[in-house]
Amino acid sequence: MRPIAVTMGDPSGVGPEISVLAMTHNSRPANCVLVGDLKRLETAQKLLVETGRLSPSVRPIGSLVEVIDLGNVAAGLPWGANSAEAGRAGYEYVERAARAALAGDVAAVCTGPINKESWRLAGVPHTGHTEALAALAGSERFAMMLVNGGLRVIHLSTHTSLVEAVRQATTERALTCIELAAAFLRAAGIANCRIAVAGINPHAGEAGLLGSEDQEELRPAVEAARGVGIDASGPWPPDTVFARAILGEFDAVIAAYHDQGHIPIKMLGLDSGVNVTLGLPFIRTSVDHGTAFDIAGRGIVREANLLAALDLATSLAAADEI
């Protein structure tokens, strides 16, 4: 199988440290390539040795795994701080990995955490990974999906205010997310997939008593999806639909906004949730955590979430290449 490209993430965050720990872990996929800054990775490895997280006998990261070294980080870049330099570097890793995926040089992209404020300082015109990768790939129909165990959640909107999220919860957007979810599930071998749509209002609007969006925007999307053969249902009360999915009643849930979908995923475990971008012409997974500036550069991070993202990327890529 072609390699999995792993981006280092924001160089001021925990990305360099978790990258080193994941690449030195005995359960990581054999065929990986790191996209980042080699000197920063070496600094992270030194920190991890000093704190006892890594044995001094572990080979240098540059000889342990192939590193595409962009050499774009100053030696004295502070840990745990926003900066245009860090934002620009983090974006360049994503761009390089995406180009490799589009060229067919890698089987999948697995991304480390970036910092949205640093991207803003660097002038990056995207609010996050999902939007940046869609722009790089020229994808107009895309969505964020979070996976944790048997729960799969696709988001109508991501990094926007709650007021704006309600505006974006349109019939067109909901239908797009249902269709992307169905395509992913069918490709994953779930032919008769069952997709639930979570309501945006309490009790899914209570027949209009608590809000009209569920009846006027979300229900028509469900009906349209059913009209083209997708087993979609809802909108369901959001306080119960995720539990029903965990119990096996649904194969995926369409969440109406960011926190509605993130909370149930993260309640299942902070180290096991994985972010997947639907609608790209290549496989992309990611850690489901941020740059953790408060602990960056201290050698005390955990790599379990990156390993989970790598594991899912590998399994999806293996199925794609059969």
Folded structure, characterized:
The protein has 322 residues and is α/β, with parallel strands linked by helices. The protein has two domains: 1-141 and 280-322, Isopropylmalate Dehydrogenase (3-Layer(aba) Sandwich), CATH 3.40.718.10; 150-267, 3-Layer(aba) Sandwich (Isopropylmalate Dehydrogenase). The chain has twelve helices and eleven strands. Helix 1 (15-23) packs across helix 2 (38-50), helix 4 (84-102) packs across helix 6 and helix 8 (171-187) packs across helix 9. It starts with a strand and ends with a helix. The mean pLDDT is 94.
Overall form: elongated
Separation of termini?
10 Å
Number of helices: 12
| Average of the residue pLDDT scores | 94
**Helix-strand category:** alpha/beta
Main pleated-sheet profile: 11 strands, mixed
At the first level of CATH, what is the class of the largest domain?
Alpha Beta
C-alpha Rg, in Å? 20 Å
Question: What is the number of E strands?
Answer: 11
Estimate the helix proportion, in percent: 40-55%
Query: Approximately how much beta-strand content do the residues carry?
Result: 15-25%
Quick structural gist:
The protein has 12 helices and 11 strands. The protein has 322 residues and is of the alpha/beta class.
How would the blueprint of this fold be written?
Blueprint lengths: L3 E4 L7 H9 L8 E5 L1 H13 L10 H4 L1 E4 L14 H19 L5 E4 L4 H6 L7 H9 L5 E6 L2 E5 L6 H7 L2 H17 L6 E5 L14 H15 L3 E6 L1 H9 L5 E4 L2 H10 L6 E5 L4 E5 L16 H17 L2
Parallel strand pairs: 1-2, 1-4, 2-3, 4-11, 6-9, 7-8, 7-9
Antiparallel strand pairs: 5-6, 5-10, 10-11
Helix pairs in contact: 1-2, 4-6, 8-9
